[in-house]
Protein 1
Amino acid sequence: MSAEWVQIGAGVRAHGIRGEVRLAPLAGDPSRFYAGLSVVWRRSGLAERSLTVRAARGHAERVFLSFEEIPDRTAAETLNGGTLWATADTSPEPDEGEWYHHQLLGLKVEDEAGHPLGKLTAVVEGGAHDNFEITAPGGVRYLVPAVEKFVVEVDLGARRMVLRPIEGLIPDGVLPPKPGSSDAR
């Protein structure tokens, strides 16, 4: 069985003169970075590199890492602009009611009555909250705020998300017509 790789950091930049890099952790939990963690560095157009974390420090907004394979700033600069990836099984368990993006991708989405609304195809990070990109049958894509007002249930075991749509949240034609409306057949 092949390992599932998930992105854990972005915006890699050289920091200082001893080969350290700084990055934005995507999980918001700096404890997921630790000495001995095996990661893969990726940047479009370049060959990926396997790295081993030598030391880690930081907080939710910024993490500083040094790697066994990176001895100095010159070597660290070759990592600028990249992203870090790790196997999903190295991620700490999320808190109750929280999920990693990779766990949500592909969930079938339905309303409280069980009508299919599509499949969750992306999580778009935002300032106040994330948004779920849902692709409806027929390819129509729309965003739903990832807030309790709209997200009623997430059942990872059943690979399903239940939404409570309000007027204007779901594009026309995705929800079935309401009984008694002129569109009802």
Protein 2
Amino acid sequence: MKTILLVEDNEDIKKGLDYLFMQQEFLLLSASNLNIAKKYILEKQFDLILLDVTLPDGDGFSFYKEMKDYINVPVIFLTAKDLEDDIVKGLELGASDYIIKPFRNRELILRINNALKFNTAKDKIIHLKDIIIYVDSMKVIRDNKEIPLTSLEFKIFLMLLLNINKVVTREAILDKIWELSSNYVNDNTLTVYIKRIRKKLGTDNIIKTIKGTGYRVDRE
């Protein structure tokens, strides 16, 4: 079942999409403002974002620009304006599509399905022993089962994967966590994150501890 994050403050739209997505076998996760949306992006997994352009605590364009490095799924902008400049701006930022409110349900579902198909086709894949990592859709598969890493856990794991056979210092990982979550994280918290990732992966052999320095993932 695909999970869709809806960033929208209109309750009527949320209720309508909740029913529509249930019929389409989509799971809806909703955020009424950008603050909540940012938290979800960093902590949860989903397959697509429907992002309203106008929200109580900011605009969707600026938010997407700020969070783009941490969003690895298709984004469809929802806008009440059909101005060409707004449409072009959203697409230039890298969004998959846009749809003008009020929209027809069939059109929205068609655009969502098209975006999901496109994303699957371009997904970058890393193979590590018996683990398959889908970079863009942030999925980790082992023995044909998805390992439920949180967004932050996945990004820590990916940081190690992108530095395969190299030691990544604890300081570098802590800096990355700070950049992603804007929360202070101490050395002990990092140890807990690594422990959780190892437990979910089902092995302690993938992520090696380099005493006094950091961690390393080896190709073999």
Protein 3
Amino acid sequence: MDLRPVTDPVRSFLYCAGGWACVGLAVLGSILPLLPTTPFLLLASWCFYRGSPRIHAWLHRSPVFGPTLDDWHHYRGIRRGMKRRAIAMVTGVVALSLLLNSLPGWLRWAAFALVAIGLYTIWSLPTLPDDAPPAPRTVAE
């Protein structure tokens, strides 16, 4: 599989469009409990690498997304504090949603099962201590 940036303008545009869609989904994932954030960031990084090295570098230099991407690329894990915040947010939002809605019981249990899978996924990711040294920048400044 060829993982170099593409030179065809149409393919480059498609990769960039996919990257921006993934960034949008990652932003939504930071708000919505059932949508993951980190996998979409990783996919966006890959799409931008293939479609636009300039946008790829911007994403990795971003103060919001860059540290998470660098931690994953260097350590293959997420920091303990981020993991705790994610679990707390998902649990809180879902509990509040399930208490305040009028969904049928079977749909509540289905949502609960999906959330449990998501929480297990977050919990099972490799954990970095919060005091781990910052990952080296994966893209030059």
Protein 4
Amino acid sequence: MAALDVAEWATIIGTWVLVVGTLSFAYWQLRQAQRLHSATTVLELRERFYSPRMRKARREFSTWLLDKARHDDATNWEVGVFFEQLGFLTRSRVLEKQMVWNAFGTWVAAYHYFLTHPQNLIERWRKEGNDPLVFREFDWLAHEMVSFEARLLTRSGGSDYSVDDAKYVLEAESRQGADSDPF
């Protein structure tokens, strides 16, 4: 009878090990599929970011942001809306933060810096429109990208992102042609 008890326990334990192993493998597969989807989406967003239409919008928006005597409001919101959508997808974990930083972090930080300096236009637009959600996700994304980069730079002994970095990026954006090579 004792041998039968050992066999029964071995079967029960073996079954549980198999169930746990199967669930672990299924979770791993799901995680890999999510990562692949995130990577594919980021690559598609990069294609959109480099499309002639978006490059024209980036050139116009960066030129407007760099203009010290700029008029009150931008005429082209496509760049800000793009970053707003990117922020939403990242915050909701459809996209992985590190992938987004790698693909767009420099631009997100640069555009956000000039939208909030010397005057915080995002806050002004929120107050004027009585809408606290204006560019909420873009704002969140910019803070996440700068924080992520700061952590990486701290580990490698580099220096923090600066206004000169942001200005360099937007000056390059303002000089690009819609059909020119981005690099």
